[in-house]
Amino acid sequence: DTGVSQNPRHKITKRGQNVTFRCDPISEHNRLYWYRQTLGQGPEFLTYFQNEAQLEKSRLLSDRFSAERPKGSFSTLEIQRTEQGDSAMYLCASSPQVNTEAFFGQGTRLTVV
Amino acid sequence: QQQVKQSPQSLIVQKGGISIINCAYENTAFDYFPWYQQFPGKGPALLIAIRPDVSEKKEGRFTISFNKSAKQFSLHIMDSQPGDSATYFCAATQGGSEKLVFGKGTKLTVNP
User: Fold this and answer.
1) Hey, which residues does B37 pair with through a beta bridge?
2) First-to-last CA distance in chain A?
3) By mean pLDDT, which of A39-43, A81-85, B95-99 is the weakest?
4) Beta strand pairing status for B106-111 and B10-14?
5) Is B86 on the interface with A (CB under 8 A)?
């Protein structure tokens, strides 16, 4: 499968715990994006990497959120001290260059209880 | 502030009919307008996209109509099929930004 891969697909965690999600983009795509999607809403931009550099961050990305792409390949999104409001689908996407098709993964559904 | 407004929220169409979903935007700097299709449990998938230098783009049964002066664009699905039942999102982005701004989505149901 050469699409965007996200793990885990589902995560249930208790409030206050830390969680980490992984995204493996399409090979050779240098652009990688994280979005958050809540029920009944469109995806909302969180952050963007070009290779290993994090170039844009949304105000939605509070201090409890951190994203990395250490070698310009896979990326991780960590949420510290999770809150119930963090419950959402976290989507990763990649693209080969600007303003071209962004390919989305199937997402990680986070439930904070 | 919602930068891309999408309507209707839900749409029911009979098989073979035309589905029309509308979007309006505020930011005149937007220069790329994709439509995404999302099935339950899946990530969004690009359906068709347009740039403001053309007023219409057609790919198979899917057509985008773009009205730059009105800051509106719409998706037309001709000969709608039950397999088209999904949630559709319009989006927009501007040169220099990698951020896609999405509408709230339209849940399309095509009855057999």
Assistant:
1) B45, B88
2) 33
3) B95-99
4) parallel
5) no
Is A104 in Cβ contact with B99 (below 8 Å)?
no
**Count of C-beta atoms within a 10 Å radius of residue A10:** 10
What is the mean pLDDT of the segment spanning A44-71? 92
In degrees and rounded to multiples of 5, residue B62 shows phi and psi of -105, 130
d(CA B14, CA B71): 29
Contact residues, chain A, for B42 at CB < 8 Å: 106-107
Local mean pLDDT, 10-residue blocks, chain B (112 residues): 88 98 94 94 92 93 95 97 97 82 97 94
Contacts of B103 in chain A (CB under 8 A): 42
Chain A residues within 8 A (CB-CB) of chain B?
4, 31, 33, 35, 40-45, 48, 50, 55-56, 58, 91, 93, 98-99, 101-107
Q: In the predicted model, what is the mean pLDDT of residues A20-43?
A: 94
User: Cα separations (Å) of B86 from A69, B12, B74, B82, B110?
Assistant: 32, 11, 16, 9, 9
| Confidence band of A61 (pLDDT split at 50, 70, 90) | confident
Q: What angle do CA A60, A99, B97 make, to 5 degrees?
A: 40
Whether B44 contacts A43, CB under 8 Å: yes
Share of chain A above pLDDT 90, in %: 79
Q: Do B98 and A33 touch (CB under 8 A)?
A: yes
